[in-house]
Write a structure and sequence with these properties.
14-stranded antiparallel β-sheet, elongated, 55% strand, disordered N terminus
Length: 299
């Protein structure tokens, strides 16, 4: 009953957020401007006004912003074709849009596109797009380096279904793993996620069931994640889990960011904070580097 209540609550949250996520701050008939500043950032939006001191721009992701004229390197008016080229170029700079810190969303890697993710040195995972709608990943934590401890290995298949491109995408997949060492055991989770919004700005609600050694969990795992571009190379990230701890629901919340490094690599950073039965405040840092390969790395 508690999980049903949470499911209904977050479904309602998604419905409320749809108009916000799908709102177009500029109409198709409005010409947009590309403004480059001396700090390396680029902003695309509708020109509201400008004078000798400052410029006012309405952007899709940041809303209305003010840029000082002395900080502007160049301005260029974008027609529809040029706007599409600019959008594609920005997405090429951000190929890691199929996940948050770790949890997947409804988007998929393109065929031949892949990435390798390393978190705190020990956590290793690689994913590749087999087709535009199916991806496969493999991962491990090499604990055998520490006195031959049991080492987990896993695979992560995912099917993505674009219900409405750049608006609603569904993902169905799982994590299927085993341990190798003194003894063997199996573990994993089967999940479904719904993502609402564009690749650069979206929220995802997910539902999954875990299993271990052939036994399935009695209650589902609920996830809620989101991403929002706040600059050409910077994103805000959140990834949250609702876990059943017997007598209560434990919430694992996170907040952090993603910065694009060089042409396409990314650095993710943030804090995971458990909220529930733990009396003391605990914050676990997250730090990972993701390097693209395949199609994305050759762009």
């Amino acid at each position: 009953m508690r999980y049903l209540t949470f499911c209904l609550f977050f479904l309602g949250l998604q419905i409320i957020s749809w108009p916000y996520l799908f709102a177009q701050v500029t109409s198709d008939s409005t010409y947009l401007w590309l403004v480059k500043t001396n700090d390396g950032n680029e902003y695309v939006g509708e020109l509201l006004s400008q004078d000798n001191q400052e410029l006012h721009l309405r952007t899709r992701n940041l809303g209305e912003i003010t840029i000082q004229q002395e900080d502007i390197v160049s301005m260029e008016q974008l027609g529809p074709e040029r706007m599409q080229q600019q959008t594609r170029r920005l997405r090429e700079r951000q190929p890691h849009t199929t996940r948050y810190f770790f949890a997947p969303n409804g988007y998929n890697l393109a065929q031949g596109e892949g990435y390798y993710q390393n978190t705190w040195v020990l956590f290793n995972q690689a994913n590749v797009g087999i087709t535009d709608h199916f991806s496969l990943g493999v991962g491990t934590i090499p604990l055998f380096l520490f006195a031959g401890s049991n080492t987990p290995f896993w695979i992560t298949p995912k099917v993505s279904i674009p219900v409405s491109p750049e608006q609603v995408n569904i993902g169905i997949g799982g994590l299927i793993g085993t341990t190798v060492g003194y003894y063997s055991s199996s573990f994993g989770v089967a999940y479904g996620v719904s993502t609402f919004g564009s690749r650069d700005r979206n929220v995802t609600i997910g539902l999954g069931y875990g299993f271990a050694d052939g036994e399935w969990a009695d209650v589902p795992l609920i996830t809620l994640g989101g991403i929002s571009r706040v600059g050409e190379r910077t994103f805000l990230l959140t990834e949250n889990y609702f876990l059943d701890a017997g007598d209560e629901i434990v919430l694992l919340v996170s907040l952090g960011g993603r910065s694009i490094i060089g042409r396409a690599a990314s650095l993710d950073y943030g804090l995971f904070i458990p909220v529930g039965s733990i009396d003391a405040f605990v914050a676990v840092p997250w730090l990972s580097v993701t390097i693209p390969f395949g199609k994305s790395s050759s762009r």
